[in-house]
Every structure is written in structure tokens, then in C-alpha cells.
Amino acid sequence: MIKNKEKFYGLLGLAMRAGKIVSGEELSVQEIKNNRAKCVILAGDASEGTKKKIQNKCCFYQVPVIIGDHRVILGNAIGKDERVVIAVCDSGFTKKLMTYI
User: Fold this and answer.
1) What is the pTM of this model?
2) CA nearest 13: which of 101, 98, 97, 99?
3) Distance, CA of 101 to CA of 81 (rounded, Å)
4) Cβ contact 6:69 at 8 Å
């Protein structure tokens, strides 16, 4: 559960502008497999199949998963349309995001 949503999503937007985020299921899975993803944010309303696939990959590759809000909120945070999966590929941003959990 995200405690400080405003700061969490603001930092996510900053990470996007810094080029440290990949969004979308397939691109995120690719980053997880290549050990570049430091954490993954999954929309709370993702389908069960997507949740299972992403959580299994993250468990296998030891990448933390954060369950976020609705897909529209995740997309708005990074300045895009609806997003179900977001991979953060920077350990500094990941460490700071984890402080808001």
C-alpha cells in the first residue's frame, strides 16, 4: 500500500522525465529478464493473468513489486495513457519510491 501517493506519483513522473522508466507489459518483462528493472509497479486493476505473469517473473528474478492504483492513475503519473505495468530501471529512484510504501 502506498502511504504518500502524491509524492510517490510525483517521483514516478520525475523518473519518467529522466528516462529511467519503461512502461507496458512486454517491455517491462524484457527489462526484468535483462536484470535492468529495479522495481515494478503493477496497477491494482490489472487482469489476473497479467498479475500472475509479472509477479512470477519478478519473484524469479528477485525484483520487488509494488501494487499501485488504477491504470489511469499510473498512466497520468508518467504522462501517458493507461498503463498496467511500469518498470523502474534506476536504483536511486527505486530506493526513494520504497520510502513511500
Assistant:
1) 0.94
2) 97
3) 24
4) no
